[in-house]
Amino acid sequence: MSLYQAPLKDMQLLVQQAIAKAGLRDLPELAEFDDELVAAVLEEAGKFAQGELAPLNQSGDVEGCHFDNGKVTTPKGWKEAYQQFCDAGWMGLALPADFGGQSLPKFIAQPVNEMWLSANLAFVMFHALTQGGSEILLHMGSEEQKARYLGPIVSGQWTVAMSLTEPNAGSDLGSLSTKAIPQDDGHYLIKGQKIFITYGEHDLAENIIHLVLARTPDAPAGSRGISLFAVPKVRINADGSLGDANDVVCTGIEHKTGLHGSPTCSISYGDQDGCFGELIGEENRGLAAMFILMNEARLSSGLQGVAFGEVGFQRALEYSLERTQGSDYQTGKQRVKIAQHPDVARMLLSIRSEVMGLRSLAYLIAALIDKSELTLNAAERKSLQARVALLTPIFKAFATEHGNLMTGTTIQIFGGMGFIEETGVAQLMRDARINTIYEGTTGIQARDLVFRKIQSDGGEAISALLAEIVRQADALQRDDALSTQGQALRSACSAVTESLPCILNRDSANLLQLNAGAVPLLEALGTLCCAWQLAELAQLAQSRLREGQDPDYYSNLLALTRFYFAFSVPNIHARLATFRQADAGVEQYRFEV
Amino acid sequence: MSLYQAPLKDMQLLVQQAIAKAGLRDLPELAEFDDELVAAVLEEAGKFAQGELAPLNQSGDVEGCHFDNGKVTTPKGWKEAYQQFCDAGWMGLALPADFGGQSLPKFIAQPVNEMWLSANLAFVMFHALTQGGSEILLHMGSEEQKARYLGPIVSGQWTVAMSLTEPNAGSDLGSLSTKAIPQDDGHYLIKGQKIFITYGEHDLAENIIHLVLARTPDAPAGSRGISLFAVPKVRINADGSLGDANDVVCTGIEHKTGLHGSPTCSISYGDQDGCFGELIGEENRGLAAMFILMNEARLSSGLQGVAFGEVGFQRALEYSLERTQGSDYQTGKQRVKIAQHPDVARMLLSIRSEVMGLRSLAYLIAALIDKSELTLNAAERKSLQARVALLTPIFKAFATEHGNLMTGTTIQIFGGMGFIEETGVAQLMRDARINTIYEGTTGIQARDLVFRKIQSDGGEAISALLAEIVRQADALQRDDALSTQGQALRSACSAVTESLPCILNRDSANLLQLNAGAVPLLEALGTLCCAWQLAELAQLAQSRLREGQDPDYYSNLLALTRFYFAFSVPNIHARLATFRQADAGVEQYRFEV
After folding, report:
1. Which of A30, A32, A549, B2 has the highest CB neighbour count under 10 A?
2. What ipTM was assigned to the predicted interfaces of this complex?
């Protein structure tokens, strides 16, 4: 049984598409990152993911992390893999060369990250934190702080942990109560209990930089009174060497249904009144810092949905081409491969079509971020940022919700064997289950979408997106082979456009509908975005087929699009119908009677 | 935290509804089973489920079963609970009084079973097997066999195990290869390996009667050559006392992602050539026997979806009335109960509305079976049996698929806490995950629906069902308060009716569509059936409200129906749209390139 094969061909195609769509081809800054280099990086990453990370995934799940007297031991093989990961330079792939990274654009980092996530999410959880934490330090840290922290972080000598959640402050960070008391020397004394800290304590690196959200004594209430502090596990001397232990104590790790190899820590800061921290950025600007990380993290969680879908598809396909059971639906021939049963094919294609649509969206977002950072045209930058901001909550929530569905479908294809842990696919379901919750639940993404991403700019970004999808629909309609899909795409856009006035209506009478209907609306837009991406792929496939290129591959791409339009696109209308009447029933029901 | 409260009020209402709809009120045979008796039985069962079974559910999951040298030990407390369960007479509730049971009609047994499933499915897995196994013996066994086996089975002294699956014969039972060699004394020597045998070995009872599917030497190939044998773990002397051990050896138990407390055994029969079995019924009629059990088992698995939904709803509701987080969407008031967030309300109501619709369907099916067994009118019996046969695969597949979704939604409501095992709701997800697989996968139910339940009678049963739902829609349309729902129900029926000619078309060109579209079609019909049940409940609620009865309860019932029509009914049209184009993409995609 193959554990995971990096889908290099799909990835390269989608990277090329993303580069073209984002207009990155002509940029001199990216001239060195040509197709050849992309292929080389992806191939190397694929080898590492397949050869080093994937083999530890199941053993890490079975063994889990160990907690003893404040110390966390990661599963067997984790330490060695971590060292190799850092030595090979994967940690700093997309981080600035100034601090030892490789400064690769996001459009290359995205497929590489996908491989890590597919191969072993529990292991690689430290990676997104390091990326996000570095971004925070880059944007908010002083020059001195950057110089002190970023080198060891980019090299993997130190890791980053994000300390946000408290028992009474989860989704609502504004209610956190950890304190930061300023000291005469410019440091702060941190005091408080945090929970759900991923890799908050571990044995992989010599130090851990906790980025802790806390309140200074005179801070305003709520989310405007939160500041961000760097709190090292081991204090750092002026020359950058390690000093004494800081007063940072891991009090336990969670017993989770999945991600057993990733320690989820409860941390007590300053229990002995000796927890030193230093302010990052200005006081009371902690939430802004957090959003820098959060956007990274949302894209990474969304990508987890893609990554789990891909692994599940590979395993299920392999199994259904081996397992014989039942007879052919047409010929009655006995004991055929189960992939020949149309219902099994339906399940396989439901995963594969979603993976391709969502992956295409993920790579596009990455390329749009690259472009927004490189363009010199301010108006273009603004509209690119608005596009990314709009797509981020859709992608995060839709990809993770469908990631859960895809892992369920994978188990279903395995039948009874899927329920047996040794098969390995139940682990996918368990590991993926947190994706729709962390980095902002699906409900929170949907509210972000409706209120901050659609209402707050008066519908400008969504209208621009819809116009682009309509142009895509028009292009499809001009091609006889794709006109059915073109028509369906156009009709889906019209249906969303008809709902826009209602979404933009700030009448308070509308508030219940917008809140209760936000997730169904997000589902509709997520499906529309996948359909859009697959429509573009179909157009590409059609033209390559006409040129006689790789007919097996491109016929399948075309079939995937047909499948998605038949099996998923009708949901757009159903979800919008729900959105239109989303206050029904929610308003009248009383839970406390 | 309450683990489970039997929802007595809902259950009693739905039992009354089912009795009325099935026309059981006037039957003299059922005169003694009045509302008072139903209430008394449900109350007692509720106490047992809450007090004895639910408290063992999580500890059984954590501990699991132990296997050592052929012996299986169940988790702590299992043995005592089993004894109490049998002593209280719950095992034989719906089994014939002739053999020590209580002969209660199915319409009472159904809610009682639901309670066992909600409280502790892993424990109670033996129960459905005992019910189904007893039905087989009642229908197929000789008088002597009934006399010998049924007493100890009904009392719980012996349990029943069903030995169907082999490594190469899962969904496709026709390919099983276990042998049964006739002996001169009329017995058979059984030889073969079976897997996935629930409670195939355990320490709860002194004997286990394995009902084993096997082939006699001259049996025809495929499913027409399968016979059924009773194979006791301990041989039974002529006087009914226990003799020597039979050659039945448990070779291991599975390490599953859920249902840890229920031993799933691999069994070797006749490894030492000493496994005696006796034929039940005629040779080569084993599959017919299996279908007796299978129909029981399908209803039981479907009920598991309802049962998990109910527990999940109760836990999630309790949590969302305790947990404060975020601010009120209208007033901005800080730190409100999360049940006040419309998106959390949406999730809670999505579970509650499905549970009520599916439970109503479950109880209706039970009452229809009772009626079909009691009616003296042959035509009525036939049409009742056809209705039950049609509804069974819909209910099994739809309730279990949505059971999985509901456990996922429960976790989502708990947020990060849902991912922590101690919270207990991740166990619901893990335990429920097998429901869509065992007793016939969702794909198999969908094929059964399309080919055996719709095509084979030329659409008679489905047309009768649709006509009844249309009558319900008409009734709703005549009530101003419900006319919107009435119209939606009617339009859904019309959409299904329009698809009927295509479903009934036996053209081979149609086969791919019917096979690939069977599950989406079943989804549409499942949603329609829930909508139908909820529409009836809304009508009842409306009339009770007009009479001034229990306004809190009935207003909520009405709200549930509104919710379901807004959030779920639009799926009917989407799934039918998929059905209409279900060959798209499945046909063209090639998995082996």
Report:
1. A30
2. 0.97
